[in-house]
């Protein structure tokens, strides 16, 4: 799914002329379309500000949006724009740039649809200067479809079309005309024609035609929408329990009313209803557990009908026969056509807003999950828990290689034998880190390892375990990608390998799995597949690009998510590496067939050539360990010698193929010359990158010259100067993920019986939704910290997401009918 999902975003920014020079104008010429008269950046800017979207806490500026649009038209990627074009974007966040990209794609669709409509109307000789101007000034699909509605061929089964086929359209036109007072219904009665045999049939048919005309009139529809907008707080979504008659007959398809009882007899204002409530109500309606109805206030109906009668019936004599038919047609237009239409629009708007909110929640949570700090340099035992078929085990090396696999019947077999078998396995491979999947039998597996650790049988090893989210592991284990990567392994064992690697390097492993299968969203399965796939793809690309990949050790799966690199190109890069050996510098990427200067510009800053070229040389930080008992456990990095590697057949190197120290940083090659000037001014060299020495030299230089003056001296903007300085200061193999909270490791387990209301616990956020966050407090079931129990003075502006360490107090605990515990929590601290 790499760059094939990126469509061309080219939209003409030049206003087209709406003037027609000749009185005998050619309507086919009017249908020519060369772009909108409105300015796309201005439209996008208004849309973003109206939606409440902010950049760095401030309203979005038109000038900035225009710069972003131009960059997108040049086919720049979102990560590239966000990191390397800060001067043009005003340091705009990647999320806002994605919003601009999405809006630009929608405007592209509007432009194409406008061209289609104008072409069709031109061929049918129905296009006028005024109509063309209206089409060209429309910048939304709703406006376009509303303008095109009167010219759209209706279904032959509609009441209006049936009346037209009987020849009643002239009668309707006469009533709509200025001479409606002279209307004589008798002249349209034809005893031999069905639908025109009596005055009542003629009256009904004319009424249907007029009702359709009224319902498709732009001014009338606009007024109805304005009434709805003005009275949003008086429009409600009424929800009730569906009748028993709607229950399905099959036992496995029985409606689970308990899940939706919160919404029984509910009345929600469309102005204040929350996105998660809309999605829950929609699901209940789909499962036939809920009946949903939108109710409009009587005041709105009365106001709108009075306005319509004043508009459509003013040319008729009061209390005349013509006035009577027109008024009946207006009532019919509202009750039969316009009211259902506006109710559908209200539901559609609510659904779109809720879907967008669901996608935002998912993307934010996925971004945090992908940026979970890796546990590098460790041998890890991955455990996929199970009862009947046992727990699947996979031991992986510090570099992710599979050392051994096994199955343990720790829950159903001989406890003594399984315990000793596990001790031997852990001691043989000197394993001090265990990752346990959070699926079936997780709790019992956790108890088993906790007892083994407490017994002291593993000493002198310092063993801890961590609960790992295994969502999507089973799906990945049977995928073609897993079969290709681990051809000789049972799918269940592959799941255990995936669990271990998720702990070792979450980003590298999670990119192999379809993001929608990672359980960190909110009703994500109810969101259109197309929208979800596009949004999640952008987030994965951004996460992988910002973390960066080592060009000489990364996998094809990881590389294809780097900004500017497609799946096909990733395969070519890996093939080139295998054939000619390791890349010495970034410039050598241009030797790869199919990778030109344009692609190099987009991807170069996100790939690195590390001096050592091995993940095992990564500087290790201490991994945070939090026990649910009173004892704190310190984890020491596992130091290993670097293994020697042999390269493949060497390609003859050119003199230019020399190592470039800056290739190990996130500094873009386009800024290398300016970076060298800065190093010279600081009396430093490439050998000093990441050292304490260069940090001091750069700090002194900035202190003496100032940021603005220094940026001007080397010819860059201040944002680029900051990026260069940070790149030079960061240690070799710096990983931005270290800035986030690390995985939660434990040695002891807490019992549910120990948890009582009022107890304060340390936990990790596992999922964030609009109504609060779910927290892992060290037991099988997660606790919910509702937004009402998350006070602002505690959050201090922080937005919680997966992986955040929090302090919570248990408010209550309750055992549900399904056997799960519900914990209600109150936030008291954030790390």
Task: Write the SSE topology.
Elements: H1 27-30, H2 40-50, E1 54-55, E2 58-59, H3 62-73, H4 78-84, H5 86-89, H6 94-123, H7 129-136, H8 141-148, H9 159-165, H10 169-176, H11 199-216, H12 218-230, E3 236-241, E4 266-269, H13 275-286, E5 290-295, H14 298-312, H15 321-370, E6 380-384, E7 391-396, E8 402-408, H16 415-428, E9 433-437, H17 442-454, E10 464-468, H18 473-477, H19 480-485, H20 491-504, H21 506-510, H22 529-547, E11 549-550, H23 556-559, H24 567-580, H25 597-603, E12 607-608, H26 672-681, H27 692-705, H28 707-714, H29 718-729, E13 760-769, E14 772-776, E15 783-786, H30 792-795, E16 805-815, E17 821-830
Parallel strand pairs: 6-9, 9-10, 11-12, 15-17
Antiparallel strand pairs: 1-2, 3-4, 3-5, 6-7, 7-8, 13-14, 13-16, 14-15, 16-17
Helix pairs in contact: 2-3, 2-6, 3-6, 4-6, 9-11, 10-11, 11-15, 12-14, 13-15, 14-15, 15-22, 27-28, 28-29
Helix content: 40-55%
- In angstroms, what separates the terminal alpha carbons? 37 Å
What's the main sheet like?
5 strands, mixed
Strand fraction equals 5-15%
Structure in words:
By secondary structure, the chain is of the alpha+beta class. The protein folds into five domains: 3-151, Arc Repressor Mutant, subunit A, CATH 1.10.10.650; 159-235 and 296-362, no CATH class; 380-567, YqgF/RNase H-like domain (Nucleotidyltransferase, domain 5, 2-Layer Sandwich), CATH 3.30.420; 667-729, no CATH class; 752-830, OB fold (Dihydrolipoamide Acetyltransferase, E2P). Helices cover 43% and strands 11% of the residues. It is built from 30 helices and 17 strands. It has a five-stranded mixed sheet, with helices on both faces. Strands 13-14-15-17-16 form a five-stranded mixed barrel. α14 (298-312) packs across α15 (321-370). The chain is globular, with a radius of gyration of 33 Å. Pfam families: HHH_3, HHH_9, S1, Tex_central_region, Tex_N, Tex_YqgF. This is S1 motif domain-containing protein. Residues 636-667 are annotated as: Disordered. One of its GO terms (biological process) is nucleobase-containing compound metabolic process. One of its GO terms (molecular function) is mRNA binding.
